[in-house]
Amino acid sequence: MKRILFIVLAVALVGAAAFGQGLTLMQNKPEIDSMLKAYAAIWTKGGNVPMTIKSVGGGTNIDLGTQLRADYAAGDMPDIFVIAGIEDYKEWAAIILDLSGERWVKDTSVAFKTGGKVYGFPVAVEGWGIAYNADVLKKAGVDPKTLVSYAGYKAAFAKIDSQKAALGLKSVVSMAASIDMGWVTAHHNFNSLLSNGLPYGDLSVTNDLLAGKVDAKRLSEYADWVELLFKYADKAVLTTGNYDAQVGAFASGQAAFLHQGNWVDPNMAQAKVTFSMAFAPHGSMAKTTDGIFVAAPSFYVINKDSRNLAAAKKFLNDLVYTEAGNKYMVVDAGMIPAYKNINLKPSGQLSKSVQAWAAAGKVYSWNQYNFTNDFRDKTLAPIYNQFATGAITKAQFIDLMTTAFQGLKK
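Request: output the structure for the sequence above.
Response:
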């Protein structure tokens, strides 16, 4: 009996030596929290170390960056965490592990790279435009193909608004602009200003703004778009609503449009939505812009000071190369896989819409993460919030945005 106990302890110690005492992953998508925790439990049962999932952001009381800084100060950084792009990388570069030699690198074209090396594991491919309830639009007599410009949306919103009661709607669009939901306005909507109508990867507008140079005409048209969305939104959801309130209004059929991305597919499934839906382009310009925003939204990086480097690397590889990992990403979490070896396809309607736009080559890039977190969250988000609450006019919105960009001039 003692010999058996000794062998068991020896095996446990070998495992602890190889993988450390437990693995922690911190991520910023509360909508997949339960799915990721379920997969982590399955992964652990497969002979791997115990795993803890921490989900912050997405309208919770604290954002990922703030939590990571607090954990770093406390000496309690996670083994795996999320970055969104180059500015996040710059903040944490000193502790991010070079993953260039990992197996999965050859199977993705959207890994996070800088300086010729790979540092980030793409979590998924995501996209957003303006999601619409196709059944409502059909009843209202609105053709989704007209939703490719400001004028097209203005006419459609007015037409649907005039039929709200008959259509069972509380608002035309479900939009959120509270400070806590600044990631909807100062991240995703902001990107309309940066890349709508431009060739994929074109950073001309972004670089101009980073240098303090503002295209007044483009900003004015963008302000019209923001004003239109705010005008036809439910004011309670717009000014104080959280993620669940915003997405729930669309899922329950109370709004014809939703300003979110395909990451809401799990929410639609949980709500047992039966209506048809898809994405239309953002109408942030007077000219036609026939495309949506598609990219790898975020990347898992490994803390190079972790005691669990082997386990962390194995976790990422298992997501890509095991049946359970593939099932979690595509079937359970409803994500569009970023890896060419994965043949599963998501069943969510909005993810299918993203894939259709991408297959047609009608996509615009994500340029918002070329700006710092503080600039987006602390400078821009409050400006959108003031506009949404009526504290400032459109002219003042334009002036404040202009001043903010001019302040970036080095």
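Residues 48 and 314 are 9 Å apart (CA to CA).
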